[in-house]
Amino acid sequence: MMKIDNTTSGGTAGTLDLTQVFAQAGDTLADVAQRYGVSEAALHAANPDVGDILLTGEALRLPSAEDSHAAAAAHGSQAGVVGGMGREAAVQVLMGKAYEAGHVAPQEAFDSKVYRAVPVKLDREQGALDHTKANSPNRYRSATERVVYTSPDPYAAAAEARPYAQAGKAPMADSSLVGLRYTATPDAQGHGGVADLAEGARRVGLPVEALVDPKGNKPPGALYQLTGEHPYSLGQQAAKGAADAGASGIRAPSAETSHQINIFPRNTHSDQVVPETVLRYDAKGVPGLAQAAGHVRPMPPNDKPVIDGPLSKPAGDRAGASVGNQGAEQLDKARPLNRIRQNLTGATDGYPRANSGRYGAVGGAVVSLAADGVAALQGKPVTVSDGAMHAGANMATGYTAARAADKLLPALGPRLAGGVVAGAIESVVSTGTNAQAYRRGDISAARATANIAVDASTALAAGGAGAAAGAAAGAAAGTVVLPLVGTLGGTAVGAIVGFVAGTGTYLAVHAAAQATGVMQAAKDKLAGAFIGAEQPLGRALDSVGRGLDAAGDAASKAWNAVKFW
């Protein structure tokens, strides 16, 4: 590929991509121009040293309509959208793997005493097993899957309480430790026991660390907030898988101790969970004497309708209860940090996963700035104002388009949604550049239409490939990298890698299609098919060009009014 500076009769300077073609026997310059749907003047400007009569096989540089600066920068918005869909595909793969870990976890018989800590209040002791009042989802409990958390011994119960203790107070201060006899026996099909989540994770290749991101009574970690991921996505999916498989409870990995014993009321009868003792701790965390637990009410049955299958956690879904398999997630809005987080992420309920807008915006800006930076280093006329305008436009386009891709996700999935939205953006950009080139007389209507169709199709294919690559790379990172970095978070790591892989693959596929000549060959073939429809195509392109000119003039005036350099 070569480039020349070209000033058209319309008086606007641009940079034309040049693709090499070869003259046939007896060709004149006019013959080649007609064959490839470009103006003879533009072809001569691209090849100033050739005469009208060409030698057989003589190489000519063929101008196209694409403006290299604007088009390369515009690829940023498409790449950002595809990166966002790569992130989404990767996280969905990880969540599916977590659900499967719970579903295949072996279920074992259990008959032992377990412990549950509650505040020292008579009503709290009496309702220690009343899971119906617990609406806040957490590590293994979603809004629709009730879970009764217990610890295997008093020491583990104190360790679990430590992150929630008030500053300067002992973990069990002013708490009651209710001792429960819990029994679970698998049936002939192996259901009804206590599922070992750690073993289930090992069976599907998911590191146990993915389930135990330490959080406690505070907002999610910085990496989760940066990526907009739910800190408990994988743990909740694993618990849901075990409950759907008929488990009475789970032996669950814990960030504070070796494990918890958590009970699913929907698969467990109240007779299997019998209160036996209550041990009260004073304000200094000193225990008193154990008492009988006759006043503790039996565990009520599950009062939530549950749909079998993985929890629905799509990016950007703030609908809460309208998502039948997820439900509303309540967040304490009184805390300043929670309010700030809600404003930054758009979350109004709990920790739903952030939309893809931030990914589209970041990708749009970064790729656009990189493209203009490379052009500037090559000595091309790219000003700071140009770079800022391109980056701003692509950031806005990337954000808006990524949000649109989120809306398409339920129907199309992340791979197809990424391709469709990237193709749509490219069709708009290509239509603009080719319509203007047609109106200047640089290319024919057939050639312009062929360029638009091939550009959009290439973007669609590159978008699908990028999202697929993001899914594979992100899911691999979420499972391979986690054991090396500790508990930074499976979905957060996967999201970042999925985004980078998706963005890079989109750009690589698009560049390869241009470098190998595949795009140009397709444009040449399609332009020939459109020759018979020159007049209606020309009228349409002329109308589009006039509209774009008007919009461009308005945008330019607005930009010049606000820029500060």
Describe this structure in words.
The chain is an alpha+beta fold and 565 residues long. The protein has four domains: 2-66, Membrane-bound Lytic Murein Transglycosylase D, Chain A, CATH 3.10.350; 67-86 and 355-562, no CATH class; 110-184 and 231-297, ADP-ribosylation fold (Alpha-Beta Barrel); 317-351, no CATH class. The protein has helices spanning 29-36, 40-46, 68-104, 122-126, 154-161, 197-204, 222-227, 233-244, 336-345, 357-377, 384-440, 445-480, 482-485, 490-515, 518-530, 534-562; strands at residues 2-7, 13-22, 59-67, 107-108, 110-119, 148-150, 175-184, 194-196, 249-253, 259-263, 273-280, 291-292. Strands 4-8-9-10-6 form a five-stranded mixed sheet. It has a four-stranded antiparallel sheet with strand order 5-7-11-12. Strands 1-2-3 form a three-stranded antiparallel sheet. Helix 3 (68-104) runs parallel beside helix 12 (445-480) and helix 11 packs antiparallel against helix 12 (445-480). The protein is elongated, with a radius of gyration of 31 Å. The two termini are 34 Å apart.
